[in-house]
Amino acid sequence: MGTIARRAGIGTATLHRRFPTKDHLIAAVYADQYAHCVAVVDEALADPDPWRGFCHMVNEICVLQTADRTFTDAFLAKIPDTSELDDARQRTVGGLFALVARAKAVGRLRADFVPADLALSMAAVSGLAARYPRSAADTARRLAAYLLAAFAADHHGPELPPSPLTSRHLFEAAR
Fold it and tell me: C-alpha 80: how far from its chain's center?
């Protein structure tokens, strides 16, 4: 915290008044990313077509990752449990699980899809953004299109191997 205060040009007491612990500071850093993701998930849930809502969410999250490289870290890195992030985290996780369930219920999302597959997708997009920064958004859109084609229930590709991750890994790993 002392190093952060020095780099910010403020005293440690000022930093501690605003952020009593390092966890509170980290929560503040990621608050915007979580708020943005909650908005995307809420918008997707509002769509009366579950598959279209799911596709919208995947596309938007992929593009958000390329616009803000810390976006992926907000979800896949270790983040402390704080009241500031807990509500956003619960809303995001609940919304993602609901989108998956709704898309499966209407027969549009493949039966063997698990929410943790979204973490794999985010990791892949994050790698693209780092490798191709100039064309990251366009590359992410293309990858999202490939992923959505593979996620579709009518996809005729090979059967998926079992997921090494469970659904709880999607956000539990971030804790």
Answer: 16
Amino acid in position 125: V
Instruction: Using alpha carbons, select from 129, 1, 143 the residue that is nearest to residue 58.
Output: 143
Beta-carbon neighbour count of residue 51 at 10 Å? Answer: 20
- Token pair of 59, please? 């596309």
For 29-172, give the CATH class. mainly alpha
CB 54 within 8 A of CB 132: no
Q: Give, as one character, the DSSP assignment of residue 80.
A: -
Q: For the segment 112-171, what is each residue's pLDDT rounded down to a tens digit?
A: 998 888 888 888 888 887 888 888 889 889 999 999 999 999 987 778 788 777 655 555
Which DSSP string corresponds to 5-71? HHHHTS-HHHHHHH-SSHHHHHHHHHHHHHHHHHHHHHHHHHSSSHHHHHHHHHHHHHHHHHH-THH
Is the Cα dihedral 41, 122, 58, 161 positive or negative? negative
The secondary structure element, H or E, covering residue 3 is helix 2-8
